[in-house]
Write a structure and sequence with these properties.
This protein is α+β, with helices and mostly antiparallel strands and 561 residues long. The protein contains 16 helices and 25 strands.
């Protein structure tokens, strides 16, 4: 895993990762799965205990499943029977104006159990705050085959043609270590030291000037022990509670389904620290009654951002997560996009350090992932703009005909304009790498749509999902049967002779699994007899027979040509 030089005590490992948030930890765990040792640096010596996003989308859940712990993640966050609705009120003791009804975790999993063989969502979206999942990943990393340097700061980085030298200091006592890596990945957030050291800037929109979900915002961690029992009531429970009256808007996100919440408010003065008493008063006005409010912490942030780095790395130093894209939280796309970055990058790093990846393989990371970052940040900003357009009439909280009409107009707006924020399966599963040099093009890809996911075996997209048999649990999904490396999926009635491809893969050191499934529904979905699936579950090539030159195919999909 690591070695020290007798001359200068420089430690070494294949990959260094700076930043131990969810993206950095997932990258480390992916690399471990591929058999590559990594060193994970993080300035804090613990996982961050302040709520952030609460959305783990279907693609992230598939990645957790591939690493073996999606079931454990589903135990975190809201209780299984807790509604995940989004409810819009004037005051919480007042009028409920609109509700976007969404299934509970139990209902989602019941739908999976009853799903048809070609259903495309084996892992539905899950609502668990990021701080819970970060703690889970932190504990998972602690027992993984990798080196943790939590509580260490990277103080210097220098790369050359053959590797990257890193100097690290322990925050507590200034102890120093020198490391040599083949590759370094910066997963160190929006203020990324690694990105700044490389001189890479963001482009796009850094804010949005509107009354809500724009400009400087405050995320406050609250405990409201009586809100659900004494104000909301069991029949009106939701995941998000939005309170809107003229001049006041706020969002409460339920964290544990009991008494802990994340509060979003607009900062009255971006240059002044949040005031606990002002937050308490704000909450009580939104509730419409006095109630106990315990403030556990604040975190300021900027809404409306849609920023993407101009480059995703330089030389042997690469970037992922918030270090290359910053989101406004509408849609819940930020962390999930970063986890998908890690899935794309991990196998390419593994292939390169293990010697079966070609000289062009790592160069496909940016052209494959940057367009997805642009797509997703744009989608999130568009949803934020829509949220800012909600019609809030002066009479909206009045007990009058005018008030009823204003609330009706508000409800119609929510139903027609904002439901898509919570129905973004096209964004979640629809990432495609069309035009990549390691994708063998064959046919026209489906039209992009943030709301609708259209499964397709046209190379470049996520492999269409199929349930293999009657079960709907772990082990029953096609994704559970894919190998750690490439997988040749054979769906025709007469399986092809795969020895030529297997032999070419063996000579190149490529881990290749062969999966035969004589299934008419799967064959109809894939539209071809055979498909080559990449380690990140995207289709690399398809056909009705293996090519005459299997070695050339493998050379292409691993970055040699």
């Amino acid at each position: 895993m690591q070695a020290a030089s007798a001359m200068n005590d420089t430690l070494s490992a294949p990959v260094g990762i700076v930043g131990g948030g969810p993206v950095g930890m997932m990258l480390a765990l992916f690399l471990e799965r591929h058999g590559v040792g990594a060193v994970l640096f993080n300035t804090e010596d613990h996982s961050r205990w302040h709520p952030k996003g609460s959305t783990h989308n279907s693609r992230s859940m598939e990645h957790y499943r591939r690493l073996g712990f999606s079931t454990e993640v589903r135990k975190l966050g809201l209780p299984p029977d807790h509604p995940t609705d989004v409810a819009y009120f004037t005051r919480y003791t007042g009028w409920e104006m609109a509700r976007i009804a969404l299934p509970t975790e139990s209902q989602r999993m019941a739908a999976v159990a009853a799903s048809p063989a070609t259903d495309q969502v084996p892992e539905p979206i899950h609502r668990a705050n990021q701080m819970y999942v970060e703690k889970f990943l932190f504990d998972r990393v602690a027992v993984a085959f990798l080196t943790r340097r939590y509580g260490w700061r990277v103080s210097d980085m220098r790369q050359d043609a053959d590797g990257v030298n890193v100097a690290a200091e322990r925050v507590g006592d200034g102890a120093r270590e020198d490391w040599r890596f083949q590759y370094l990945v910066g997963c160190d957030g929006g203020q990324s030291v690694i990105r700044r050291t490389l001189g890479i800037r963001y482009s796009g929109f850094d804010t949005l000037e509107q009354e809500f979900m724009g400009g400087r915002m405050i995320a406050t961690y609250l405990r409201l022990p009586t809100l659900l029992a004494e104000v909301i009531g069991r029949g009106r429970r939701a995941w998000q509670y939005v309170s809107i009256t003229p001049g006041r808007r706020m969002v409460l996100v339920s964290l544990d389904g009991k008494e802990e919440f994340l509060l979003f408010t607009r900062a009255p003065d971006p240059n002044v620290a949040p005031d606990d008493d002002a937050i308490r008063a704000h909450v009580r006005r939104a509730v419409g009654a006095d109630l106990p409010v315990e403030v556990l912490g604040h975190n300021p942030w900027t809404a409306g951002a849609a920023l993407v780095a101009e480059r995703f790395g330089q030389g042997r130093v690469l970037l992922a997560g918030d270090a290359v894209h910053l989101f406004t939280p509408t849609g819940g796309f930020g962390m999930n996009t970063g986890i998908d970055d890690a899935a794309n990058l991990a196998w390419k790093l593994a292939a390169t350090v293990q010697g079966w990846g070609g000289p062009h393989l790592l160069g496909t990371y940016e052209p494959e992932r940057r367009p997805i970052a642009v797509r997703n940040t744009t989608a999130a900003r568009t949803l934020a703009i829509t949220a800012g357009e909600m019609p809030v009439a002066a009479t909206i909280d009045d007990d009058s005909d005018a008030g009823a009409a204003a609330r009706r107009r508000f409800g119609e707006f929510i139903a027609s304009r904002l439901g898509e924020e919570f129905a973004s399966i096209g964004v979640q599963l629809g990432a495609r790498y069309d035009g990549s040099r390691i994708v063998a093009e064959d046919g026209a890809p489906p039209a992009a749509d943030p709301i609708v996911y259209r499964p397709s075996s046209v190379p470049g997209g996520r492999a269409p999902h199929v349930w293999l048999g009657r079960g709907r649990g772990i082990g029953d999904s096609l994704f559970d049967q894919l190998g750690r490396g490439f997988t040749l999926l054979c769906l025709g009635a007469r399986p092809p002779d795969t020895r030529a491809l297997a032999g070419a893969a063996a000579r190149r050191g490529i881990d290749l699994a062969v999966l035969h499934r004589a299934d008419a529904a799967a064959r109809a979905l894939y539209e071809r007899d055979v498909a080559l699936i990449r380690p990140d579950q995207h289709v690399a090539w398809r056909g009705n027979a293996l090519p005459d030159d299997c070695d050339r195919l493998l050379a292409r999909v691993t970055g040699y040509v």
